Amino acid sequence: MSEEFANVRAVHRYATDYMLRWVEIANEVHHADILYSLVFTTLWAGNTSHLRGSVYSELEDVPPDHERRPLTVRQVADSLGLPYETVRRWFVEMLDRGVAKRVGREGFIVPQEVFAKPEFMHSLRRSHQSLMRFLKELKSVGVDAG
């Protein structure tokens, strides 16, 4: 067996466990299904994907709205391989819930204030703990995540 595939099954078990913990956390914070959580996550991740390194890296240091790049429904739909209309309906729900806002004709963002809500701060802490667990599990089978 090549070095490239060393511990491949263990790594996949840990990765699957990590992804399922993410689903649990996301569904809990959104009180919704996995599809809603994926659309929401794709939107906020796309809004801030250009921010790298240690900029806005601390728990309380949430990027302000002017730093977020708006995404369109089409961009999110294409990214997830979902029908436009399905994603548009989730955007309408996010707008109704107050967890997304339209930025002119440019698209949509998840505003800064959403991430300051206690339930989102709690989910971020849980997600961080889950990620740290995943990284420790990878290290335990010889995967250097660094």
Give descriptors for this structure:
146 residues, mainly alpha, two-stranded antiparallel sheet, 2 strands, globular
Architecture overview:
With 146 residues, the protein is mostly helical. Helix content is 60%, strand content 4%. The protein contains six helices and two strands. The chain has helices at 8-30, 34-48, 73-80, 84-97, 112-115, 118-140; strands at residues 101-103, 107-109. The protein has a two-stranded antiparallel sheet. A hairpin with a 3-residue loop joins strand 1 (101-103) and strand 2 (107-109). The longest helix is centred in the first third of the chain and has 23 residues, at 8-30. The chain is globular, with a radius of gyration of 17 Å. The mean pLDDT is 94.
Give the secondary structure arrangement, pairings included.
Blueprint: H1 8-30, H2 34-48, H3 73-80, H4 84-97, E1 101-103, E2 107-109, H5 112-115, H6 118-140
Antiparallel strand pairs: 1-2
Helix pairs in contact: 1-6, 2-3, 3-4
Mean pLDDT over all positions: 94
Largest sheet: 2 strands, antiparallel
Q: Let me know the number of strands.
A: 2
Q: What best-fitting shape do the alpha-carbon axes yield?
A: globular
Strand content: under 5%
The number of helical runs is 6
The multimeric state of the shown protein is: single chain
Poorly predicted runs are none
Q: Kindly name the structural category.
A: mainly alpha
Please outline what is shown here.
This protein has 146 residues and is mainly alpha-helical.
